[in-house]
Queue: 3 jobs
Job 1
Amino acid sequence: MPPPGCEAIDAMGRTNDAIHYGGRVHLTVTGADDAARDLARRLPSSQSRDFGRSFADIFKEYDYDFYRIDPALFAPAEVWVSNLTTGRTFHAGATRFDLLHPLWLDEA
């Protein structure tokens, strides 16, 4: 859960950062393992050219236009894709609390 932001852009940015760098998802699919593996590899937010920076900064850089942001950023940090057809599960990405801490916390 992100800490509150003092301005709307910061608050929105922190909720997006929570997903991009701390979000996890487990999907179930049917079909070929190659397709499930490919989905797992392509899905994590780390595949985005904008990965690694705060969403608020990215949003400001693109003049507050969501459509200019790389769509790959709107994804969780870590993903599991389980293929119900074969019983295999594929994993990609990782949570990145090392990126969240400097965005959200000041040391006391």
Note: The radius of gyration is 16 Å.
Job 2
Amino acid sequence: MSEPQNGVLVGLYPGTFDPVTNGHLDVIGRAAGMFSRLVVGVAVNAGKAPLLPIEERVELVQAELAAVNARAGVQVEVRPFDCLLIHFAQSVGARVIVRGLRAVSDFDYEFQMAGMNYRLDSGIETVFLMASERHQFIASRLVKEVAFLGGDIASFVPPLTRERVLARVRARG
């Protein structure tokens, strides 16, 4: 990995965040302490047919990060992107891509992506953070499924995100 520019090591935590979960916030909070600057990249990812539009996902991640920023003593930047991840990493000056792992099943896909990204730019490393034990089972896809089926998602997402998800679910009713 190349040296940080001007002593600033920039990390990038990308995802769709549809919706942002307590697991995402856990990884962001832990990653924030590892870098001079952390950028959370919210992927447009129209192929996944997101429940929440990109503007709302960015807004929710920013709102939910208030507590993380206060604890970490840094300002985590949130930016949307709609391009190749490695190009976005280059555009924000990231030297490290942070990926969260919940289970062994995540590893195969993430390992392939890390290898591809390394081939595209060997100056940008990928690091993996294991989800905290209490968040290992949380996936945005499952949160949406539980919400659509009338289950309680309060323990999986922060309150504002819960309100927004449930409003979208009711609207699709």
Note: The longest helix spans residues 104-120.
Job 3
Amino acid sequence: MKTKIHYAWIILLLAFFGLLATQGARLAFGAFIEPWQHDFAADRGSISFISTISFIVYGLSQPLFGRLIEKVGVRRIFSFSVLLVGISFFLTKFVTSTWQLYILYGILASVGVGGASGVAASVAVTTWFHKKRGLAFGIIEAGFGAGQMIMVPASLYLIEGLGWRTAVVLLGLFLSCIVFPILLIFMRSTPADIRLRPLGEEGQNGEVHSNRTEKATNLPLLSLLFMKPFWGLVIPFFICGMTTTGLMDTHLVPFCYDQGFSTDMTGMAVGVLAAFNIVGSLFSGQLADRWDNRFMLVALYMLRSVSILILLLSHQSFWLLVFSVIFGLVDFATSVPTQLLAAKYFKNHSVGLILGLLSMGHQIGSAVGAYLPGMLYTRSGNYHLTFIIAILLLILGSLFTLLLPKQYNTISEKIMEPVNTETSVS
């Protein structure tokens, strides 16, 4: 079957659209914090705990979905996960207390988000692309930024104009009635499903995938705990989740309202941040194929700490937008070099499992980053201490990244040798 445009690009477009819709809806959580506080007479710590539960469920689901995707395929997992998120959002309209939000948003929707996640999209990229993976990973990450740019401001305006209950109904219908059927009809799990080879592969259909699956069974899960590259990736990625989806995606909107910014200014700041997320993700995808990914991550984490320092020291509209530009450029941009490093260190093992474990670390960090600021805010009435902690942790994450082995292009069997526990990252 010969086509001018390889179907891999269609798969990439579908994954981009699925992430835009599903992850964009998830990233809109911050827009609902204040109305939920008001309607349910709850403090910010209690509402933030909903997000914490969500991140924990999302994170724990990642290795499971990573394995499940390899058994039943990306198409089924991705599309039906979107449907679950849509139904959960729709049912949120009928909640009358916070414990119901814990179940619908914190658990059910988060399981769906876990299936329609970057892990599923990344497995699709590694399956369909044998060339231009850095670019493809960058486009995937841009889906998160596009979702944030579109869904968060849209949610803010829907909540302000129609109320939060109408907003969740519209989000639920969009996911269930538009996104789900598109993915189910057009998504394909492997090139072999439509008698194609992956983009850039010079072999027969299925050869690469079957070999990888056979080798994936040779890596015991517990052995990862004694591998230096694993900890060198997962600890900074934990901090990454804590300072992005945990802290900023959950608390930036209420922080802006606390500082007296209008809905228009807050929406503009989030939109600018998301727009530069897209730019940063695409640029990261191009750069990651050319630069040392370790040093690239160090630069990204350090720039992120600078952006948070700007937000901490100034509360004017101009500096809020400066923060949005810098933070947006380095926000999702860390995922591409992290994924590429993981692919190099663990190239002969299960892509779904490894990426799932990394994503779990990221989401657990997000859970901490969502809850801790809410708790500290309840006690102090501001986010100052939270921002200082975030800056220090990002510097620490940069140091851990520098400890990663230099020879990541060597065969993974050598790198995967267990290291002495005394010299491993603690």
Note: The radius of gyration is 21 Å.
